[in-house]
Write a structure and sequence with these properties.
Blueprint lengths: L9 H9 L7 H11 L4 E4 L6 H13 L11 E4 L3 H14 L7 E4 L5 H10 L3 E4 L1 H9 L10 E4 L2 H6 L3 H10 L5 E6 L4 H10 L4 E4 L10 E7 L5 H11 L5 E5 L2 H13 L4 E4 L5 H13 L4 E5 H4 L9 E4 L6 H8 L9 E7 L4 H11 L13 H12 L76
Parallel strand pairs: 1-6, 1-7, 2-4, 2-5, 3-4, 5-6, 8-13, 9-11, 9-12, 10-11, 12-13
Helix pairs in contact: 2-3, 3-4
The protein binds adenosine monophosphate.
């Protein structure tokens, strides 16, 4: 299949060629014709598959006719996080550069007034996080009755963050006559119910199984005592050929501490977590993309779905407590046919989470010989068990997280009905990320160009 045969306009084909895309990805060749025909679509695909273009491209063509009225957006895209919303806005910029579509971004951490001014001008494409959208709606800043195309992106992430009630509320406020597209990496029962309720005879498009990981990724584990984790991380960062890496932690307190520790040891690190202001998150992300920062310490919620350039290494500083998070995390490396390395730190208390991951993957993760837990590791672990290492400790570590109940990583500020929910947080991490260029290894190596196709690397790239 070629882009030329999909029914897209020649203006759009020019933008696609400018973007350097030669062929549609599987999600694109399945979804684009259906969206152009006006059908509802249920897309089961994760980030990295070319999913964003699968809805933005046909939307641009569909919206090129007609004009937006003040405060009555013609289309609405719901995203779970501000970063994802900003990324989708960038896609509209990129693919819509030969069109004259107006768009607005309603996300937290940005002035409401500026957003109202955008809405007043009339928008063809409105990209929003659910909390901020409802906030504007309740203040009478916009009407949803003009929406003709609704996209619910990353629905399973919405579920993780407790946004499904908001999404349902938004769906009920939209005009009867509209086209709905829903994308989700996984299809838990709540999302299935949402799709059944709000999609009308959708075309179902599925491109990747949730448990598959690219075979370009070398996966291994390291047994380690809790207290030795940071030392192990430093050792690996200096001994492995690390171009750039993401270090995933389960909780934001851990992100902050690992980040601080790496900085103390003069690593070229940045951090990404839900307590940071929007501007700080964007800044560190762009520094990472540009290679100014080479090690990004991140939490799942802050990093998931982001189009981060292919990285050489992913370190799971903590074993993810949800198996699917493992797949999402390590999917940051080994993208688009490139080789990647994923290393997971396993303490004795992580056994059940590791078991669940191995069960999902259908294989055992092994550690290099000689890296079994040492006596010192075990001792330090025992000590840690008696006396938590830091305030706030690891009281949650034994409890499985209830992913469907509430936001788990500071993204609560997007949540429903809190008047100031999207206001930037003030906290001790509000300082600007330090662009200290001291590095221990290959700090200035530029990350390779972004490409991410997850497990669906097109043949032309294999
Ligand atoms: P997404 O899954 O939407 O996050 O897209 C992942 C990456 O794939 C983005 O960097 C896109 O620019 C890129 N991409 C999307 N479609 C294509 C295509 N047909 N050919 C090459 N790259 C693409």
């Amino acid at each position: 299949m070629k882009f030329q045969y999909m029914g897209l306009s020649s203006t759009l084909l020019r933008a696609i060629a400018d973007a350097g895309y030669e062929k549609p990805t599987p999600i694109q060749w399945q979804a684009i014709p259906a969206v152009l025909q006006g059908k509802d679509v249920l897309g089961i695909a994760q980030t990295g598959t070319g999913k964003t273009a699968s809805f933005t491209l046909p939307m641009i063509d569909k919206l090129s006719q007609g004009q937006a009225k003040a405060r009555m957006p013609r289309s609405l895209i719901l995203e779970p996080t501000r970063e994802l919303a900003a990324q989708v806005a960038e896609s509209f910029e990129k693919y819509g550069k030969h069109h004259k579509l107006s768009k607005a971004l309603l996300i937290g951490g940005v002035s409401m007034q500026d957003q109202v001014a955008d809405l007043d001008r009339g928008v063809d494409v409105l990209i929003a996080t659910p909390g901020r959208l409802l906030d504007h709606f309740s203040r009478g800043n916009l009407m949803l009755s003009g929406v003709r195309i609704l996209v619910i992106d990353e629905a399973d992430r919405m579920l993780d963050m407790g946004f499904i009630p908001d999404v349902e509320e938004i769906c009920t406020k939209i005009a009867q006559q509209h086209q709905s597209l829903l994308f989700s990496a996984t299809m838990p029962p709540v999302i299935k119910k949402l799709a059944d309720k709000f999609l009308n005879d959708p075309k179902v498009v599925e491109v990747a199984s949730q448990s598959s990981t690219a075979d370009t990724i070398t996966q291994s584990i390291r047994h380690v005592g809790y207290k030795a984790k940071r030392q192990l991380l430093r050792d690996l960062l200096t001994s492995e050929k690390v171009n750039n890496a993401i270090v995933f932690c389960n909780r934001k307190i851990e992100v902050k501490e690992v980040y601080k520790s790496l900085k103390r040891h003069k690593f070229n690190a940045g951090q990404l977590h839900g307590d940071m202001q929007q501007s700080e998150r964007m800044e560190v992300l762009s520094d990472f993309k540009e290679g100014k920062v080479t090690i990004l310490v991140a939490s799942d919620v802050a990093a998931r779905g982001l189009d981060i350039p292919s990285v050489s290494h992913v370190f799971n500083f903590d074993v993810p407590q949800q198996s699917e998070d493992y797949v999402h995390r390590i999917g940051r490396t080994g993208r688009a046919g490139r080789k990647g390395t994923a290393i997971t730190f396993v303490t004795p208390r992580d056994d059940k989470y590791l078991d669940a991951i191995e069960k999902m993957l259908g294989k055992k993760l092994t550690s290099p010989e000689g890296n079994a837990p040492t006596k010192t590791d075990v001792k330090s672990e025992a000590k840690f068990d008696k006396k938590p290492h830091h305030k706030g400790g690891h009281k949650d570590a034994k409890k499985p997280q209830h992913r469907h109940s509430k936001p788990k990583d500071g993204e609560q500020n997007e949540a429903k009905n809190k008047p100031n929910h999207n206001k930037p947080h003030k906290n001790d991490d509000d300082k600007k990320p330090n662009k200290n260029k001291h590095v221990k290894n290959k700090s200035n190596a530029k990350p390779k160009e972004s490409s991410g196709f997850g497990d669906n690397v097109p043949n032309f790239l294999k």
